[in-house]
UniProtKB/TrEMBL annotation:
InterPro entries: AK/P_DHK_N_sf, BCDHK/PDK_N, BCKD/PDK, HATPase_C_sf, HATPase_dom, His_kinase_dom, Sig_transdc_His_kin-like_C. Residues 238-368 form the Histidine kinase domain. Its EC number is 2.7.11.-. Keywords: ATP-binding, Kinase, Mitochondrion, Nucleotide-binding, Transferase. It comes from Taphrina deformans (strain PYCC 5710 / ATCC 11124 / CBS 356.35 / IMI 108563 / JCM 9778 / NBRC 8474). GO terms for molecular function: ATP binding; pyruvate dehydrogenase (acetyl-transferring) kinase activity. Signal peptide: none annotated. Gene3D superfamilies: Alpha-ketoacid/pyruvate dehydrogenase kinase, N-terminal domain (1.20.140.20), Histidine kinase-like ATPase, C-terminal domain (3.30.565.10). It is found in: Mitochondrion matrix. Pfam families: BCDHK_Adom3, HATPase_c. This is Protein-serine/threonine kinase. Belongs to the PDK/BCKDK protein kinase family. It is an enzyme of class 2 (transferase). PROSITE patterns: HIS_KIN.
Amino acid sequence: MSSAALLRHFAARELHCINLGTLLDRTNHATSKTILDSALWHATEELPTRLAHRIDDLDSLPKQLRTGNVSVDTVRKWYEKSFNDLLNFSERHKHKKSDQLQTADWEDLGRCLKTIDKRHQPVATTLAEGFHRHLSGNPELSHDDTLQSFLEVFHLSRIGMRTTSSQHMTLLQNLANGGERPGLAGIIEKKMSVRDVLEKASADAKQVCVDYYGIYQAPTVKIEVPESLVTTYIPGYLWHISFELLKNSLRAIVETYEEDKYRPVTVTVSTDSTDDEFVIKLSDLGGGIPAEGESEVWRYMYTTAESPYSPDEADDYMVSASERAIMAGFGYGLPISRLYSRFCGGDLRLQNKQGEGVDCYVHIPNKVYD
C-alpha cells in the first residue's frame, strides 16, 4: 500500500477521547504487561491515526489559508515524516506482540517517540507565526470560522498526542529503571503542590517581563494560596496556564503604570470553589480588556500586542521561536491555556472590568474522572 493510501486508511479510523482522567485510569490499573501492550498499540495504531487525521485537516484547509503558507507546509511535512517513522517501526517489528520484543526493540521505540516529540516542539509557534505572516494583508481571514475551528481541534489534538507519548515514554523508562517514583503516575503528579507550581510560573513570567521591557524589577505577584493545597494534575500544564495568565497581567501593569507605581497581581483560591473543584483566581489592576476586544479574547490570533516578528523574517527564524520566551503578540496564549485546562477536566474563565482590570479563574477538579 502506498504512503498516500496508508494515510487515507489511518485517517478513516475512529479517534478515541483522551484526557487526564483517561491517562490516570490506564496508569492506576497498569501492570508491566499492560504498559508494554499499551506502548506498542500507541506507536503502531493510536499515534499514526491521530497524525493522519491532522494531516487530513491540514490538507482540507481552504485554499486562501494554505496557498503560499510556508508554516502549514512545514508542519505537514513534520507530521508526515513522523507518520512514516511510525510505519517504519511497525514494519521492522511486524506481527510481534509486546512480549516478543527485546530490549533493543523497546529502545528503538523510545528513540522513535523522542525524535517525534522533539520534531513537533515548534509546531504551535510555527503555525502561529505562519498564520500571522500569511494573514497580515487580509486580517479579516483570521475571523474565518473554518480557521478558528481548525486551530481549536488541531491544538487540542496536539496536546493529546504529546501527553500520551510523554506518558508512554515515562512509563517505559520507569519499567527499565525498576519502578515508578513515589507520588507519580507517569507524568501525572498525584499530590501536586499548587503553590509550588504557581511560584515557579510567577518567577518565570516576571523574568520574561524584565527581559522584554528592560525594566529593573517586574511588578509584584502575591500568591495567597495555602501550601497544603494539592491535587492530581500534570504540573507542566498548570505551569503553562499560570505563566500565560501572569504574563498578560504583568504586561497590563507595566504598560499602565510608571515603574514606581506598579500595582501587584494577586493569586488566591476563589470563593467559587466547590466540593467538586477548586478555583484559582488571578487578578490584576491593569485597566482591563478594551471594549472592542472583550468578545475576541478567545479567538486565535487576537492580540493587543505587536507581533514579536516582522513578516519578512526568515522561516528558519520562525521555527526557532518556540525556543525563546515571548511576552505577547501571537494571540494563542488564552485559547491554548483553556485547552490545557479542559484537557485536565477543568476550565478557564475571564471576568473583565473595563478601566479597572481582569480576573482570571482557573477551574481545577478535586477528583479526576475519565
